[in-house]
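Let us work through a complete example step by step.
Step 1: write down the sequence.
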Amino acid sequence: MKLSEITPADAVSFVRIEGDDARNVTPLIEAAKSYVLNYTGLTEEEADTKPDLAIAALVIVGDLYEHRDMTAETAAENRTVKTILGMYCRNLIGGE
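Step 2: predict the structure and record it as tokens.
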């Protein structure tokens, strides 16, 4: 799957969103895609050549969905997302 091809149905299935919450997933997808592109510094075309970035974006969607209120129990980054994005990071500020 390409980053640009992630659909609401993909995200709902991956995150296991049920009921009325499923209709609110599109903004989460867009935010996740934006995060991936800004973190890595890749263009959309470049990101589409790396299928694992779609997985990272779906994990981010899940995190955004699970932590959609103002308070969070933890500030820890998801290690899977950080590892995948770090492999492709061109942005000297985003990567380590």
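Step 3: interpret the result. Residues 12 and 22 are 6 Å apart (CA to CA).
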